[in-house]
Amino acid sequence: MATASAVREVFHFSSPFSAVLLLAELLLLAQAPAFNIASPFCHHHIPRAREVIYKVYLKESRVMKRNINEHLRIKTIYDRSVEELLPEKKHLIKNKLFPQAISYLEKTFQVRKPMATVLLSRQCVTNQYLRKKDDPHRYCREACAEHTKCGPVIVPEEHLQQCRVCNTNGRNCQTIGEADKEGIRDADFILYVSALTTERCGQENIIAYAAYCQLEADMDRPIAGYANLCPNMISTQPQEFIGMLSTVKHEIIHALGFSAGLFAFYHDDDGNPLTARYANGLPLFNESLGVYQWSDKVIRKAVRLWDVRDNNILPHNIFLLVTPKVVEEARKHFDCPNLEGMELENQGGIGTELNHWEKRLLENEAMTGSQTQNRVFSRITLALMEDTGWYKVNYSMAEKLEWGRGKGCDFVMKSCKYWINQQQRKKEPVAPYCDTLRSNPLQLTCRQDQRAVAVCNLQKFPQPLPQEYQYFDSLYGVLPKDLPHYGGSVEIADYCPFSQEFSWHLSGEFQRSSDCRILENQPETMVQRNMGQIPFASFKSQLSLWNSAERN
């Protein structure tokens, strides 16, 4: 007979993840702190035309001889503001975040036409400039600016070309000041990294933002850009590192090419512009959008027939990116041979719309407009970068995207209501969407890759959703008059409900996610991974420890 001290109850599970799922249920039932599945949008800042210098002449314009296997070369310049951060934040940025992000990007992309040296152009006091016949340089009218900036960062003098000016009548053009320095050698792109508390940091709940600031003359490729991290949003918590790393990669890709402000500058495989140029060498400027207008070889409008509640069908207006590699990869991913292109985001306001993939269709792709879960950089994003005409791409660096894979044309070209209804009629799962209301206790499920706890984000909104996004003819326990109020919590996913990873928060501050790959989310006392079992006493102890920690 066993003594009391030797007796222990043991739960057996088919996999360690099953244990995590049960633990999550127990934590929530044990009045664990509030969880969160919110997903703030990325509002990419498209630089205003006066903030960008176009057609920068590179002094050493000869094309370098280069090994075919050589990678993109990003030269990182850290602003003084990074040096002034707390030591742990400075270490995170300089030794982990940016080295890892840049290593990934350098291995993934290679510049088609690299130059030997990069020397940037100067900004003008009046923002007025002219060009002389048979002279590729840019001349400022009256005077060069005292400082040239790339985003919020002042560009070092040694990175700048000599000041060139003409008088107010455009005559008496001359060079002023010191001659050109050597410039930055062995670099394809200069990235200025800062940690400044800018106005954007104060207005928006963002970790970082980035953009380009100078484009070279030959192929219109960005050769300089910036990334600013908002100091108060930099977290040194290990469980937040994966998300921050993904954010930094995402922002640098905006600066390298994925931006509505750059669509008009894309080239084809032969180096020809996909959008017509005017006498000044630039495309037509769209004053209402504040960007140079792209051609329909890059972006096209389309209208989908959109099923909504009460058997109504509405027109749904979209924008499609229609460059060749993107079309090829999108058709392959969704298994839809007549797909015209990859849909761009049409919601979220300025900076989110057109600057990201449509969230409904590529939910956890890293270049969608919000970070919800398990972000991956897929072949579709890499295809866009190849279609800029500026880069060759190493597709072995693409990460596998399960969302929408092989779902067919009905999934990618029709509303989520149509998809859900068709699956229900066939008595098949409605995944990746869901139709389960959040309840108490929660009905938990697994993320699509089985590596995190998830919950259906279907919820009730205070006001009826726009008719275009009213998808439900019935929901269990919901009165018919209330149905227009129900939809998925993520607006930019067209309010389509899906199972979304959630995280625990205390007083609005992030504590941990439910991703079981992150060590801090699965202490050994919680999940004995090698044994596939959890002692009940340890379970209760862990619950107590977590609840105590949250109260403190």
CATH architecture grouping of the largest domain:
Roll
Radius of gyration: 26 Å
Number of helical stretches of at least 4 residues: 10
Portion of residues within helices: 10-25%
Low-confidence stretches: 1-35, 525-552
CATH topology of the largest domain: Elastase, domain 1
Strand order of the largest sheet: 3-15-16-14-4
- Look at the structure and give the mean pLDDT: 85
Largest sheet properties: 5 strands, mixed
- The CATH class of the largest domain: Alpha Beta
Instruction: Give the N-terminus to C-terminus distance in angstroms.
Output: 42 Å
Structural class: alpha+beta
Give the total of domains. 3
Strand content: 15-25%
Q: Indicate the overall shape.
A: globular
DSSP, total strands: 30
Write a structural description.
Its cofactor is Zn(2+). It comes from Thamnophis sirtalis. Belongs to the peptidase M8 family. The protein is of the alpha+beta class. It has three domains: 204 residues, Roll (Elastase, domain 1), CATH 3.10.170.20; 111 residues, Leishmanolysin , domain 2 (Leishmanolysin, domain 2); 97 residues, Leishmanolysin domain 3 (Leishmanolysin, domain 3), CATH 2.10.55.10. It is built from ten helices and 30 strands. The longest helix is centred in the N-terminal third of the chain and has 22 residues.
Summarize the structure.
This protein is an alpha+beta fold and 552 residues long.
Chain-wise SSE layout:
Layout: E1 10-12, H1 16-29, E2 35-36, E3 53-56, E4 74-78, H2 80-83, H3 87-108, E5 109-111, E6 117-118, E7 129-130, E8 139-141, E9 149-150, E10 153-154, E11 163-166, E12 174-176, E13 184-185, E14 189-194, H4 199-203, E15 208-216, E16 222-229, H5 241-256, E17 285-286, E18 291-292, E19 299-308, E20 312-321, H6 324-334, E21 342-343, H7 379-387, E22 391-393, H8 409-413, H9 416-425, E23 444-446, E24 453-456, E25 458-460, E26 486-488, E27 499-501, E28 503-506, E29 509-513, E30 533-535, H10 536-551
Parallel strand pairs: 3-15, 4-14, 8-11, 14-16
Antiparallel strand pairs: 1-30, 2-28, 5-22, 6-13, 7-8, 9-10, 11-12, 15-16, 17-18, 19-20, 20-21, 23-24, 24-27, 25-26, 28-29
Helix pairs in contact: 3-5, 6-7
